[in-house]
Design brief:
homodimer; 457 residues; mainly alpha; CBS-domain; Tetracycline Repressor, domain 2; 3 domains
Chain lengths: 457, 457
């Protein structure tokens, strides 16, 4: 995660922002337009994120729709929402016209419902409008919700020369051509061609003779995460999307999948840290609280549970054994750490589809692993307590319970995500506070019970 | 993370594996070859992962080098290592010949050093050999280590027609053509062309007139994670890699970047869970222990530290206050949870480059956030202790310390990753056991000090 300054790479500097603010204040529009002409739209979006809202709006109104549409697409969601609020439906429609259908539909989907129709009605290009309306009907977590309508399609009956001619026409609409999809006369997907194949082929060859019939595809209602897995596994750069009758409806490109992978990884990471998905460091305190407080509350309830259990033991314990309670944070911490380790590796394995074998084998392996770790750590703890407190039975009971707690914490950490996954629940919720809290309680109960047994209280 | 059965997608079934095992046992090679012909190499790699080592070797020796080279590339690293051990240098070299230079270099790099040269010397194609040798000189964490030598290169002086003719020749060597790179006569990168541009252009146009001069590139020694960020930000599907003199040396495609992103996310996730990078659920118990034990040991040391601190307090506390110790697991758990939440959001923000503003602002925001969470949780805890123990001062001291502990835990969780990042250390190590352990100890100390103060002990 280290940074490596690259002389080729755009860097926002204070001087750059100051210069732009100065140009805005003095309304030197020409200079502003010409200085922005040198930047990539993703860089301009970053600059706008650093400006005040009024300054950002000034720039958006100043630049042409072709550029601002791309900038809008890249902006931070909160800023985009604010900007869209002050633009008229007509202005938004103009920008939407410039965007690919998938990006256009994503932006429209963010608008309040009553504005959506208003903006759509202002889109002039009838085909673009119909495409966007179709995309809005799909769930955003499905292939249909992620795909774009822009693609290059040829019929199997065409020749290579005719094909190249037609592609020249279609390709102007499509920013990047990944694959050429081959359909039969019912628009059913039957194969694909790469542009390379087309260039390498002879002009008078028939598409039917050169296309590759073994084509991977997704269905409109496939889960995007499944599509991401398929594209990664087969190293695909684009995948066609078909409806239930195998009719070609759109295509998904790998750059959209990169975003899905990133978001999925971020979501799992946040869940493991006890943060409900979909917040960023720059979100408002209220949003962050909503994402974090429920998990902290779970932890608090667990802590109160641990207190109640310990109190029940304490009232029945002669006071000379109160030293036992001084080890409860250690036991709870170890139970929590082991639980998080075991659950994280299972959650990650499930996400990457590389958890093989039965639940029983998995539990057996985790038990052996936990036992190994437990023995090493317990020997150390035993030695410490024996030297520090000169009490063999105390040292034995604490060390023995640590082994038991580590094994049981490992089993719980392994079992819960596997169980949730089997029941169709996202196992990622089982890491973090959920597993630490339950393991804290189990750990303390096991510890106190074993200690009572060994010490003969 | 839910699974969506797709009738288009390959699924390993017990029946399939049994059938293949049966074919291997009965040595019906023809049937084996014909049944594998229907599978994608990534699917065959999955099947081999399910077979015994002897069975996997049988298949590898049976299929042709063209297929097995791709299978090898997709195999689980441990299985690949075992298979390469039993293949001769000549056999490995044959498979290497079939692979793209980047995959070929990756596989050779996995071999023991003394075998590497032996295998390389057996590669017949002199250009392929030189390319692989060049790639092996770069660090694997740099653009040079990730790039492939296969690319389509044209000189600015060529015409479109001449270009298409030459590309037909070059393109046969390149599996997928993303971009055509334009160089001057010194081989310096000066721009790019998409195949689409080339198809859309007229035959007699000069490349110099149609190429796009504004081209993103990486340098051979750029960090791969930086390259991944640039490619994501600018939605690039391929990026050319140049040396210090801007000479074109290779290209990186987005599918390799997808792997970098995935691995980076996995590494951060594992670190947050207290697992040192680079283990999978299916690794051996010893490997998993090596990855997990050091972090558990850190937790144990922390627990012992907490014990020593508590004991020091206990010996000075009248015994009627021993109830205070029953709340230490609660306090430690809350301090740990808050610390993990704060650090995770900072680590993620740093990874995604969206942590803006100064450290001070960030700490101020976290303080307000933690205070808000702390107040809500403390009111609840206060009510519980007051009702349960009927002791106002006890309830007050526990609730007041909870607020203080949460705020300080949040600040520590925010500060440590920011500090590590500033010092050039991967902040991801600051989440998980590291932050929970330090916060456990700080939390308990703060709690006992505040309780002593309020209870006037």
């Amino acid at each position: 995660m280290e940074e490596n300054k690259d002389n080729n790479q755009f860097q926002i500097t204070d001087a750059l922002i100051e210069n732009i603010e100065h140009l805005i204040d003095s309304k030197t529009d020409k200079k502003l337009v010409s200085s922005f002409a040198n930047y990539h739209y993703a860089d301009i979006a970053e600059i706008l994120d650093e400006l005040t809202f009024e300054q950002a709006i000034y720039i958006i109104k100043l630049l042409d729709s072709d550029t601002t549409s791309d900038i809008l697409k890249e902006l931070d969601e909160d800023l985009r929402e604010k900007i869209l609020k002050v633009l008229s439906a007509k202005e938004i429609a103009e920008k939407i016209e410039e965007l690919d259908t998938d990006d256009a539909a994503d932006i429209i989907a963010e608008l309040p419902e009553e504005r959506q129709e208003h903006v759509i009605s202002q889109i002039e290009d009838a085909e673009h409008k119909a495409d966007i309306q179709e995309l809005l009907t799909y769930d955003e977590a499905t292939a249909g919700g992620l795909m774009a309508k822009e693609l290059v399609k040829v019929y199997e009956t065409w020749t290579v020369a005719g094909c190249l001619r037609r592609i020249r026409g279609q390709a102007k609409e499509v920013r990047r051509v990944h694959s050429v999809y081959v359909v039969d006369r019912d628009e059913k997907l039957i194969g694909r061609l790469s542009l390379k194949d087309l260039i390498v082929a002879k002009n008078d060859q028939k598409i039917a003779d050169i296309y590759i019939s073994n084509v991977d595809y997704a269905k409109v209602d496939d889960d995007v995460e499944e599509v991401a897995k398929i594209m990664q596994k087969y190293d695909l750069e684009a995948i066609p999307v078909v409806d239930e009758y195998l009719k070609l409806k759109g295509r998904i490109t790998i750059d959209d999948i990169v975003d899905v992978i990133r978001e999925e990884a971020d979501k799992d990471y946040q869940l493991a840290a006890g943060i409900t998905q979909d917040v960023e460091a720059d979100d408002s305190i209220l949003q962050l609280t909503k994402a974090r407080l429920p998990w902290l509350f779970l932890g608090l309830i667990g802590g109160i549970g641990a207190f109640i259990i310990m109190e029940a033991f304490e009232t029945r314990l002669p006071s000379e054994f109160s030293i036992l309670f001084l080890f409860t944070p250690l036991i709870a911490a170890m139970a929590g750490n082991v639980g998080v380790q075991s659950s994280a590796i299972i959650v990650q394995g499930l996400a990457n589809d590389d958890v093989k074998g039965s639940i029983n084998n998995r539990l057996l392996k985790e038990m052996m692993l936990a036992a190994l770790n437990g023995v090493v750590l317990s020997i150390f703890l035993f030695a410490f307590v024996l030297i520090w407190k000169q009490d063999f039975l105390l040292a034995l009971s604490i060390a023995a319970s640590l082994i038991a707690v580590i094994i049981i914490a490992g089993l719980i950490g392994t079992f819960i995500p596997l169980f949730l996954h089997k029941r169709g629940i996202d196992p990622a919720i089982a890491t973090g506070p959920f597993i630490t809290t339950s393991n804290d309680i189990f750990g303390i109960v096991i510890y106190l019970m074993i200690a009572k047994l060994i010490l003969g209280i």
